Amino acid sequence: MAPSNVAFLCLLGGGAAASVAPRAARPVAVGSAYPARELCSRCGLCDTPFIGHVAQACAFLGDGMARIDAAEALAHGRARRLDEEDELYFGVHTELSGVRMREPLAGAAWTGVVSAIAIEALESGLVDAVIAVGARAEDGPARMEPRPQLCRTAAQIRACAGVKPVLANSLELLDAVRADASIRSLLFVGVGCQVQALRAVEAHLGLDALYVLGTNCADNVRSSGALRRFMSAVSTSPDTAIGFEFMQDYAVHVKHVPGPADTAAQGVPHAPADSARAALYERVPVFSLPQSGLKDVIADSCTSCFDYSNALADLVVGYMAAPLRHGERMTESTQYVVVRNARGAALLDGIRPRARFTALSSNGDRRPFVPGIVEQDLEGLLGDSPPQLWAMPRWLGTLLARLLSRLGPSGVEFAKSSIDYHLLRNLVRVRVTEGEVRAAAAIPAHARAVEAAYGTLADELVARYRALRAARPELSRRPPPMRREAE
Q1: Is 106 found in the same domain as 36?
Q2: Is 0.70 topped by the overall pTM?
Q3: Residue 264 above 50 pLDDT?
């Protein structure tokens, strides 16, 4: 039986985990390449002795994310129902609904749903500690750069509020968890590739209970340097930016904190604020992003990923399926939650009295929009077109974004369009760059189902880019591997 299955059976059997000996090995040395090389997502597993499990745990080695197919049933008690569209897209679930906190949490990217769940789990005694992602600095652009934290107080969790859009090595803290006898129950907050690795080693942590709070994830920035390049290309005031997100209105919402100088004077337009020190927002239509400044920003692991929905988490918080009113700030907007099992329900129940829940809506038809977006993105990933130096003026990009917001998919249908786009793009990329044998082993069933729904689109794109690479061998040159950096 594979080690990952042993881990799940220990969890579901209720407490045998402490008797399982870990397969320890020497962590990757500073400066050395990670086992998954350029596909590494820097989840942190290989920064610990748990690297001994990497062949079975890593989402980008061997069978990769195809392990999700069997792992879902072990984690949640049943497999995903691929013939039910909501389960096909969002994974195993017992509840899918909109949510926002009645009293928003200061410093949160949205209203603080994730932070509130973590704080309640800790303060109620459900867990002894929380692994979350803090920031390298309290102010300025470094606030978006990740520093994983093992939180033992509500104040430490609050300090982790806000999205960090860069690869984070959160699993490096597992060694500290295993060494601390006072931690009998743990809440892990993380993204799909981290959660898959965590599930593979959870039996070796010596815990009585593990709760996993996941977030949706797509297209993380590969490094702090890439983040700075991205912000310089996107924002008119990169030095005051403290967060951003690609939102449902076809715009990047860049969050700024005004400094001594007037941020609006630096080009942040019409940004409402609750007070002199409240966050300002800059909205940049995606059609106005200069492609020359976006090259090599997204991690290769993210363009090889098939787990946007975070299939193995107990509870998932995201935003793509939620409504977004025109002009609404992220700190005012609704998110959505996916409850997968009893552990997820227990986490969410802790905040129900302080949260507002709503039914999700779905409008429009995603299918006419997806192929064009996939083709455009693949040209940047696999093609030979030079980077686009010119982008739409913001006023024109804003008009187009508003038009698509009215005519295009919205709500749950918008989320499904985003999932379709990412799955199809990544499936084609893996088939072209890794080959059909590797793709057949590593692509999960739900991604194959989405591929089939679009007929011959993926096959045609694979054939196009294989032919291009045969004629232009230099396009097949592999990027350098991810290496462990000094802290």
Answers
A1: yes
A2: yes
A3: no
